[in-house]
Amino acid sequence: MTIPNAIPVFQARGLTKRYGNVTALDGTDFELRAGEILAVIGDNGAGKSSLIKALSGAIVPDTGELLLDGKAVHFGSPIDARRHGIETVYQDLAVAPAMTIAENLFLGREILKPGIMGKYFRVIDKKKMLSEAIRHMQDLKIGIRSMQQAVETLSGGQRQGVAVARSTAFARHVVILDEPTAALGVKEGNMVLELIRRVRDRGLAVVLISHNMPHVFEIADRIHIQRLGRRAAVVNPKTISMSDTVAVMTGAKDPAHLPEDAHA
Question: Between β-strands 22-32 and 37-42, what pairing exists: parallel, antiparallel or unpaired?
């Protein structure tokens, strides 16, 4: 759960991003607290994708600043964000279907054998990768028969589980999830929601981008509403209705007119 009045784990202040005459981000702010699931919602063109790309290092904002644990950081690429302990799972998952689950968990970060074989010959330590993969999947309670089966043999929910497990294996601060339940059935969607809760309970702050409002209200501790390139409001899903949230998101309702306890 969110730690009240905690120093934000991750912040953005006054981010702007323009593409010619199009303004994707117009001085937007963002604040993620320790131990929370923060949902980010917004209509098409609201700037939520640009915001997430800025937070994950996929784009560099024209102006504004990012702060991690209260200290200014600059990401020139997603690799920079990863070095700072921020992992992102995009909607397309970026898994290699023909490779095993264990190989996918360490894709691009393979463990090398100790000594000469690893240092000079770059021989991969498949045995250690397999044992680490088993341990990590068990920690997250992801039920998969064998870590040595190909990802292409898994269901959509299980593939999402592999992608989330890979991110949590290396994240130290933040996990960003882009539409993790999209195109999943009810049962698999609920499985992924439970997985997200377990990620939070392990101490990682989670950013969840989603169009699925029932899922957002079921799992989020707070909801960041993005509109016209700016943060319109941050609301408490326990004290605001879904209809009022959608009304703020679409511009039908001024957030200033929300009850005081609706803000978070």
Answer: unpaired
